[in-house]
Amino acid sequence: MLTMTDIKKVYRTDSIETHALRDFNLQVNEGDFVAVTGPSGSGKTTFLNIAGLLETFEEGRFELDGVDISHQNDASRSRLRNQKIGFIFQSFNLIPDLNLFDNVDVPLRYRGFNRQERKKRIENSLEMVGLAKRMKHLPAQLSGGQQQRVAIARALAGEPRFLLADEPTGNLDSNMAQSVMSLLKDINANGTTIIMVTHDAGLATQATRNIHVRDGKVSEMNESLSAKVDMPNAVATDNGPAVALVK
Amino acid sequence: MFNYYLKLAFNSFKRNPILTGLMIAAIALGIGASMTTITVNYLMSGDPIPEKSSQLFHVQVDSWDPNTGFNDEPNTPPNQLTWTEATNLMAAKKDFRQTAMAKSGAIIQPDNPDINPFEASIRLAFSDFFPMFSVPFQYGNGWDQKADEDRQMVVVLSKETNDKVFGGENSVGKNIVIFGKSFRVIGVLDAWQPLPKFYDVNNGAFDDPEALFMPFYLKQELELPNWGNTNCWKSPEGEGFQAFLQSECINFQMWVELETEQDKQTYLTFLNNYVNDQKELGRFPRPLNNRLLNVMQWMHDQEVVADDAQIMMWLSFMFLVVCLLNTIGLQLAKFSAKSAEIGLRRAVGATKQDLFLQYTVETGAVGLAGGAMGLLLALLGLVGIRHLYGDELNDLATLDSTMIATALLLSLFASVCAGLYPTWRACNIAPASQLKSQ
């Protein structure tokens, strides 16, 4: 369903090349709930950005739902993102001057749904996250946990096949984090494939698959719930990404 | 999606009222300055009689000084005629319609003792003047050819004069004392304000039409004074009014109505033959140089649109460009503050084209708001011009519907152009770099 083969991603400045991903190989199957862990700078977010079609890559092959992404132009990738992928971010990324209804409406506008279809989907997804009664509120009137629920509703409204979450609980206290995690598990149980980047070992153990990324490569994969993951205090001792000076 | 983009634009205004207000103000200042000068130029250079401006020709014959051309220009014939040419050419009656004319003035003595006598300008013309120039009548008509020939004491009043002397009533058939003589009113004009006053641009291209119109030969009959510009390349031979009429002094204008190019060529040949005949009589010492210019050619030739008005217009365009450059800076700042939203929209599926349209609509809305405010500033600017130049530009300093539409279109176009670079930059923001930076 999502297959990455020998993906290479390099960030370049005038004098420095940073190899964010190299020989990155991964297959994610339908219905997986994959937790991606690894130290800061290991390439987790780069992987998620490429998986979410937000960034391109230099080498390798990436297939999403049978579509070879390397040959898609920017507009096609935008369409694929809109139709197949939902995003959840650490900082929620809600638009502050739009109410909850209009925030959830954003991806649907680009999908071309009519007004009735959009309204139905918005109400259903806000209902699913328990915020149907607050759809006229602005994001600033909600707690952090509620804002993340709105972000989840926005990601789900288009009924995507993939949900990509980058530190979805990073800005939440433990109770709210667990609440959001429960919601994600429910969504996964309903058939949506989830890939979640996290530093939280406890949350990672709740996914059905764990992968560990180090130096731009998948270093470990574990399909059990007791997978070995990086602990938060291990991050500080990590060597970070491979950096090479360009001649 | 257009309504959605419009809604987002208004949300954006509310989110950044100061930045948006500054952009609107910058565009308004540029548009206000530009529209003020464009309006003056537009009205100065407009076609005052579009339905037949290409068929009306101003007559010029070169009767000037053998040593120096008119206005020291070697190839320019004088811009007016002598009495001799005006009357001779009229007597020939070579064309469809023709009128020689002159400007004069006299004191009107109303019958009503409550109205003091007052000085009024007079247009001396032939009967063709009214149909040639499509002059509208409120009451009565112009005089006929017989009145021209018989030098009848008839007069056509302007609407303003009729309002002043007769209280706006139908005065046709009544008498009015002008220059100490009794004239019979045979017509009253409706409101008529050709801009520019093309039929006599030498004597105030933006003046009001005259207060009274009467047969041309009354100039000689009553010895009416010369108003307007009079130029002579040699002094009259003798003293008095008749000597002036027989001199080489120019104070008279002449227009002919010629329907086809062939008519024009025929009339020009007639003019050349006339001048050659006069040369045999010892007049017209300069080389043959006669001209027929239509209304727009004549106004261009006489530089009705003043150079300083055109310079002011170009300066105001440069000011508009400076305002737009400021708008670009403000727009960049505004879109920079929105980079997280732009990243989010890209992430959830907006294409670059979607964002380009969204922000172009927003920029256009700012432009229209700036244009509307600019129109108010232009009105203020035109009031300023009226104060600066006085009554002469009263009729020029007004905005008509064409100018209002022009202002809005110009501001829309200018703001969208100014927004192209900021919008392009916004559309090319890498979404991934923005999504984690909030």
UniProtKB/TrEMBL annotation, chain A:
Domain of life: Bacteria
Similarity comment: Belongs to the ABC transporter superfamily. Macrolide exporter (TC 3.A.1.122) family.
GO cellular-component term (any): plasma membrane
Species in which this protein is naturally found: Paraglaciecola mesophila KMM 241
Domain ABC transporter: residue ranges: 2-240
Record-linked Pfam families: ABC_tran
Record carries keyword Aminoacyl-tRNA synthetase: no
InterPro entries: AAA+_ATPase, ABC_transporter-like_ATP-bd, ABC_transporter-like_CS, ABC_transpr_LolD-like, MacB-like_ATP-bd, P-loop_NTPase
Keywords noted in UniProt: ATP-binding, Nucleotide-binding, Transport
Signal peptide, first to last residue: none
GO MF terms, alphabetically ordered: ATP binding; ATP hydrolysis activity; transmembrane transporter activity
Protein name (Swiss-Prot/TrEMBL): ABC transporter related
UniProtKB/TrEMBL annotation, chain B:
Superkingdom of this protein's organism: Bacteria
Subcellular location as annotated: Cell membrane
GO cellular component, one term: plasma membrane
A Pfam match: MacB_PCD
Keywords tagged on the record: Cell membrane, Membrane, Transmembrane, Transmembrane helix
InterPro entries given in the database record: ABC3_permease_C, MacB_PCD, Macrolide_Exporter_MacB
Any one Gene Ontology molecular-function term assigned to this protein's record: transmembrane transporter activity
Transmembrane segments: 21-44, 311-335, 356-383, 403-424
UniProt membrane topology term: Multi-pass membrane protein
Principal location: membrane
Residues in MacB-like periplasmic core domain copies: 20-217
Keyword NADP in annotation: no
Entry annotated with the keyword Membrane: yes
ABC3 transporter permease C-terminal domain residues: 315-431
PANTHER family according to UniProt: ABC-TYPE MACROLIDE FAMILY EXPORT SYSTEM PERMEASE COMPONENT 2 (PTHR30572:SF18), MEMBRANE COMPONENT OF TRANSPORTER-RELATED (PTHR30572)
Protein name, as recorded: ABC transporter ATP-binding protein
Source species: Paraglaciecola mesophila KMM 241
